[in-house]
Description:
Blueprint: E1 25-27, E2 30-39, E3 41-45, E4 71-75, E5 80-87, E6 94-103, E7 125-136, E8 141-151, E9 178-191, E10 194-203, E11 214-215, E12 221-222, H1 227-233, H2 235-238, E13 244-253, E14 264-279, H3 288-293, E15 298-314, E16 319-328, E17 341-343, E18 349-355, E19 362-367, E20 373-375, E21 378-380, E22 382-392, H4 394-397, E23 409-420, H5 422-428, E24 437-450, E25 455-468, E26 478-479, E27 482-483, E28 486-499
Antiparallel strand pairs: 1-2, 2-5, 2-28, 3-4, 3-28, 5-6, 6-7, 7-8, 8-9, 9-10, 10-13, 11-12, 13-14, 14-15, 15-16, 16-22, 17-21, 18-19, 19-20, 22-23, 23-24, 24-25, 25-28, 26-27
Amino acid sequence: MIPAITPIRYLPVGPLPREAGTPAFKVGSIRFTPYGFIKATVIHDSSSPNGDDFPLPGFLAPDTGPKGAPEFHLRARATRIGTNIEWLDPSPKFTITGRIEGDFEGNFSRVDNRNIGTIRSSMFSIRLAYGRIDYRFSDRNSVNLVAGQDWTPFTSSTLPYTLETTGTLIGFGVLWERAPQMRVGWTHDFGGGFKLMPEFAVVYPAFGNVPANVQTATGILTVTGVANQLGYGERQGADSGRPEVQGRIVAQFQLDHAEGVAPAQIIFSGEQGQRTAIVLKSAVPAAAAFQAAFPNGAAVSSDTAAWTGEFQLPTRFATVIGKYYNGSDLRFYFGGQLFSNFNDTFGLTGTTTVASVDGASNVVFGLNANGTPVVAPERPVRSQGGFVGLGIPLSRIFNANPSGRNAGWSLYFWHGQDFAKARDVRRMLAPGARGTRDKSAMYMGALYYKLNNWVTFSYEQSYFQTHALPGSTGLLPLFNGFPARIWHDLRFEAGPIFTF
């Protein structure tokens, strides 16, 4: 029979089964099952001013250049490979599993024999690497422990079935991440198909801020960390001296009892974390008042906090999924139009700006209303958004022969929006700066044809738009070289996927 469409990030609720499926090979009592896919796609964007082969919000820069910067790409670097692992414990109550997964979406090689051909020399990089222990202590109750890098319990439970997996709709209302974590969960089976699974995790406190070399007040050049702090500015989260905490609760039930339909899931998640920007003693402004007030340097912090409501509702006729989120400083999760935080200088005089120790942000010193030297508080940019999606199993609806060549047709539609609070974005901009963005939206449709169990052909058509910050009259960002309130990109991507 032709199954209904199962959500792409369908969560396992309850203990994983022991010895599930036939492994490809065994080493002693350890079972290995490799998997992955080879994907090659052609891409055309009517406007891609950043030069990326995946969509990003418009107005990241104040000018797109002439003709909106259309681009053509053909890529194979989304190719992915991984393996599932199981360690067989003597006790039937334990299931011990793991996964290692990577792709070629990472850096390009920079050595002499590759520099000219660097575009074809993508480097393999980690996606997932974790171990999991499930323990069933009764017919109705089980617990699990996950340790390693996995999808975050906050916001990553629901993803659209999109062909574009390099950025997976960054800044357009999807929200997701993978991060190192320690996660524990408990599942209770109430019977009748209803299960409840709460989870709690401590997660690496990442914020995604860009590091740089820092010129201190004394003229000393400070080079940041190893390869600019592990490649992309994760020092400020670690400098808070505390983990990010996340939680998720999943309710699972059978919405449609027809054959081949997965259970439905309602999901709520939340997170809270903190970043700290450090200013060294050598970088404190030279004025005597600041030197006296901050004799050992200074530090300033801001928080990220957010929640989501998500749903995945499969039926025999269509599968509907969606997500809503609301929070602050969601840059690391690709929300809030990729903004992080800003310096709140309201009421301060005599301000002086210096770089933090990692160069990922600036810290502002000033005098408050009483003339006391202070550091300007840093505030997170608040945001909200979400997406809805519809998947239609065309072949099942039209009663195609399950063993025939027409058994693999499916159709998808998606819409998402991401908003940054305009008030926060205005306060973040320098006086007189040309306007920037405050919200983006996407509209997508995709047609998939599954030739057999291993080969799928897909075509995806999408439209992306970004709105300029309201009130930017006279300082609007430029699109095609002209002041514009809306940036837009008409994009298509198509190609085969070979699965193994």
